[in-house]
Amino acid sequence: MFKVRENEPEYAFIPRVEAPENNCYGKPIQLVDESDPLAGQSLNINGDSSVGDNPDRYKQHGFYFNADNCIACHACEAACAEKNDTPAHLAFRSVGYLEGGSYPAVARLNISMACNHCDNPVCLKGCPTRAYTKFAEYGAVLQDPDICFGCGYCTWVCPYNAPQLDPEAGHVSKCNMCVDRLEVGLKPACASACLGGALDFGVIETTPENRQQLETAIPGFPDTSITNPNIRFQQTRSLPREMHRTDSTPLRYVRDDQNVKPEPGVKGGQGGYRSTPLKNRNQPRQWSLDKLRSREDPLVIFTLITQAVVGAFAVLFMGPLLGLESLSAGAHPIAYPVTLFCLIALQTFALVISTLHLGRPHRFYRAFNNLRYSPVSREVAAVAVFYNLLGVYAVLTGVPQLFAWLPDGLVNSVREASGWLAVIAGPVSLYFMQRIYRIPARPFWNHWQVLTSFFGSMLTLGPLLAALVFLPVLAYQGVDYASLMQWLVVPMLAGLLLEGFGLWRHARYLQTGAGEGDAAWQEQCTRFGKTWITRNASMAVSAVLLALVAVSALSGGTGLVLWGLLALLVTITALVGRALFYVLVIPTTMPGAFFWKNPAFQEHAREAGLAGMPQVGVQASTH
After folding, report:
1. By residue range, what is the domain housing residue 523?
2. In this structure, is residue 558 part of a structural domain?
3. Residue where a domain terminates, one of 228, 244, 277
4. What one-character-per-residue DSSP string does 532-551 give?
């Protein structure tokens, strides 16, 4: 148990007050009845099997933040860091701020934020390893770093940047509500250390001393409907109509003076303000090719290869059934099984590459632990099913001699069944793959365009991959491959048109929306403007070339050269487009400060070498 000091001041203890039955979201505050058989169990804090005597042990607790009183002294940050012994580049609690007005009437709004121990913890549902648990004790959402394998998906889905990924340790960790202090009736270290009386703690929906408001949002606070956070705010001082972030996130917050509904895409939060992007339409377009690299580079390769392999196998399996004998195993008894084994090798490479995204790659097997909730677990399981079915089909097709001791009818039946199941499992795995990115906390991704992009890549890259094998084989054999090329052009053209339509609708959605989505659109048009336009032009040129191939029926060396150039153009376009997909997203995070939690300063610190100094508080690398 946590040792209470003899001279512990009274303000450090959680007040004993009556609480309502339900919180403002309609959820019960009493999480477990005292008579429940599960009540009275120990949290085993630091191996201690004792049970705390806090009478409100099974009620939902939360933080209270009074923005009027916060002086940005960072005492809460320091107390949290000391209590949890966090390295300089991590902070379970951080203080950011917004600024507004003009001299001499300048206003600043400080915001102290940690994990909000939400009623609907999306980090818990998203984590594939089940490293998160929402406890009935105090309603604390706790995370076990030893279970975590460092995928960082919880950092994607959390709107408040509460889970902290440590690339040096290879895992995520976060605020644990100081449950060891709660067990003996003390407030968390951050609340106890607050100098201005801005940060408080207690049973949720109970108004602390000297407070009047229990608001669920404040300017700069993300949409509360995503997680139903357990934090309440007070902010009574008059603020300017517009508040700006001091970090590099291109957002501002505009007060809704008419009490009208927020713009599309903003369902709540911001405390009477709506988030809008900083307009950068006059900023010149840039290439920013060096900014296309990100921590998600392994996922760029993994997603594209998986989509290509799924599409290629569908072409190889369905082609002969649709009358394309030139793609059958009978016509190419060597090339056909070799191509299947090459697809397995490619998919194996993609799976290995995907583990490089993890902080602890050797624990990849834990990705299957949360099939009930996590889209990551479902994607991994679906890809594994497709991969194994593809392997069964390839082995039974390429080396049937291994099963000569079995009846031929049984071998053929298993082979056909595995082929059909793989054709189904492939697109299903891509569906689960796109579900990973439908995240409310990342509006740029939260659109059906992800589905059209992933399936468009399957239709475009799959036939292209098959063609790169069979067109040279047919040319070497002296067989006219023009008809096969014309057939393969059809799904490729359909894939480009599908992806192009999705991108067009996505752009309309972002421009008519608000907040982080529109801000990402501005970044796409300015910072990456030339790269984005070139990618779009390359897609259009690829579609025109495919249409010419379809009508010209080229063959021989000329056809192979054209097909090779087309393959190079399509591949580069896909790589650039997928890299943009990852680097353009702007998450719904809490405001940072000019140096602390500022993406631009972090980027500068890495480029200038300042990140090598631990006291700067910037991770030397992002992985």
Report:
1. 463-586
2. yes
3. 277
4. HHHHHHHHHHHHHHHHHHHH
Q: How confident is the model at residue 261 (pLDDT cuts 50, 70, 90)?
A: very low
101 φ, ψ (degrees, to nearest 5): 80, -175
In the listed set 235, 259, 277, which residue is the last one of a domain according to the structure? 277
Decide if pLDDT at 381 tops 70: yes
Q: How far is CA 374 from CA 149, 369, 564, in A?
A: 14, 9, 40
Q: How many residues does the chain have?
A: 623
Q: How do beta strands 231-234 and 61-66 pair? A: parallel
pTM across the whole model: 0.91
User: Cβ distance 582 to 294 under 8 Å?
Assistant: yes
Q: Is 294 inside a domain boundary?
A: no
Look at strands 132-134 and 141-143 and give their pairing: antiparallel
Overall number of domains in the chain: 2
Residue 254 lies in a domain: yes
Highest mean pLDDT among 139-148, 471-480, 513-522, 597-606: 139-148
DSSP SS3 for 270? helix
DSSP 549-606: HHHH---HHHHHHHHHHHHHHHHHHHHHHHHHHHHS---------SSTT-HHHHHHHH
SS3 27: coil
Place of tokens 């583990």: 355
Could you tell me if 536 and 502 are in contact, meaning their C-beta atoms sit under 8 angstroms apart?
no
* Partners of residue 45 on adjacent β-strands: 48
Structural domain includes residue 517? yes
Phi, psi of 175 (to 5 degrees): -60, 135
Q: What's the CATH code of the domain at 55?
A: 3.30.70.20
504, 254 contact by CB (below 8 A): no
